[in-house]
Amino acid sequence: MGMERGKPSTHVPAKASSHGTVDRISKLPDDIMLTIFERLDICDAVRTSIVTKQWRHMPTMLNKLIIKVSSFEPDKDNRSKISLNDLDRANATMLEATKSILSRRNASQYPLHLLCLQFYLGDESIAIAKTVAYIMETQTVGSVELIIMTKKDHAHCTEDDVTFHGRQLMSLFEACPNAFAVLTCLKLENLSLNESDLPNIFCVCKKLEFLRLYNCDMGILSSLDVEHPRLGELEMDQCRFERVNLKWLPMLTMLTFEDWISQKDPLSFGYVPLLRNVSLNNIAFSWHKTLELSELLCNSRVNTLELNFMSEKIWIRPECARRLLPVFCRLRRVNLINVSEECDLNWTMFILQGAPSLEELHILVRDHLCQMLRNEELRREYEYSEKKGVDWEGAQLNFKHHKLTVLKIFGFRPDDKFVRYVRKVIEAAVNLQDIFLKQRFSLRNRITDGTNSFAVIHFPSF
């Protein structure tokens, strides 16, 4: 079908001649066009669908329907210029768009594999949740995801705000439990809830597979017990719990835990037989406990471990191999992120000693100046640690490691402490194959002279 005049599209590159030549894109099969439409923002998909009559039903044929309130904000790239009234209008527009697209779907012909809705807590929230519940009653939907945001972001939320947001969420939950019962993914932010609220949500959301909590609590320094039969991925960031007990999560495979305020071990692991990937990120202040991984990760058998020190204090304590072996026996890959430039790396040898199956060790050495607090007076006021590095006598022990094949160090510096460290790894890891260093070729001889290693040293750019 020819391109209609007066309705050019800047989103899908269609080509039509002045003689009414059939445009090539509109001749593409529906399955290819659907693939193209699924890659568009929902607003762009709707605008594009009006270019030709052939495309007008495309938004209602999508197998994956992702509708975000942020798509309807007047200046979505500059949140600071958006008023609360703007957010209210965006929420209302998002609701109408959702109803319009879903009401025109032919569910029997085009099954919906994914329905993902992003919206703000507010007057329209209950109507959005009821729409989800109705769709689930009338259509078959594979996965349902809700991203529930607050109109005030973390930086501007007071204690009264997060308490109010918590009440808003629970009013929504109590009004539409059927909508929550079908969720496979739930993302929440900026909430202070009562002690029973999250356990009640876990109980109702029986199909939940992914959960993200950002700046959430049940009262500052409260404890949270997490039990769920299907939860596979859990992300918690800046949540103000003293301790999170992962009591019974038989399907959990991935855990991301960031920025805790507890002065004790912030986590405990109960029954997590499938847990393979753990990521821990934290700025450690002087009052934070230095963690022992043998205790923290007790009852888990992780495959990949990522530790992000945010260019501040090293918040783990080196331990002997005997203590680490029960939790590191399956460890294959370790990522050490944002190790401060003030630190040497000798302490990391305890990981090699305690993880005999380790295959890859990745280290990023960096003082992240955009994120670091550098004012000395403020650092003292907020109780930043003066000493960032960690000492370990066991770094001098001679041992052999037979599984490590890859060592990557980004932020490598050609001073003696770094060169000595790489040589130490080379001497210990007898089957090391590749070393990636972000530095110059002139370092190669300084590192390998006097060793018998056949490892290839690479100097990649970022």
Q: Care to describe what's here?
A:
The protein is an alpha/beta fold and 462 residues long. Helix content is 28%, strand content 22%. It contains 14 helices and 17 strands. The strands form two sheets. The protein has a 14-stranded parallel beta sheet with strand order 1-2-3-4-5-7-9-11-12-13-14-15-16-17. The protein is globular. Residues 1-22 have low confidence and may be disordered.
How is the topology of this model organized?
Layout: H1 30-38, H2 42-49, H3 58-61, E1 64-68, H4 84-103, E2 112-120, H5 125-138, E3 141-149, H6 159-175, H7 177-181, E4 185-192, H8 197-204, E5 210-217, E6 222-227, E7 233-237, E8 241-248, E9 254-258, E10 267-271, E11 277-281, H9 293-296, E12 304-308, H10 321-328, E13 333-339, H11 349-354, E14 360-365, H12 376-381, E15 406-410, H13 416-428, E16 434-437, H14 443-448, E17 456-458
Parallel strand pairs: 1-2, 2-3, 3-4, 4-5, 5-7, 6-8, 7-9, 8-10, 9-11, 11-12, 12-13, 13-14, 14-15, 15-16, 16-17
Helix pairs in contact: 4-5
Pfam families: F-box (PF00646), LRR_At1g61320_AtMIF1 (PF23622)
Domain F-box: 22-69
Protein name: F-box domain-containing protein
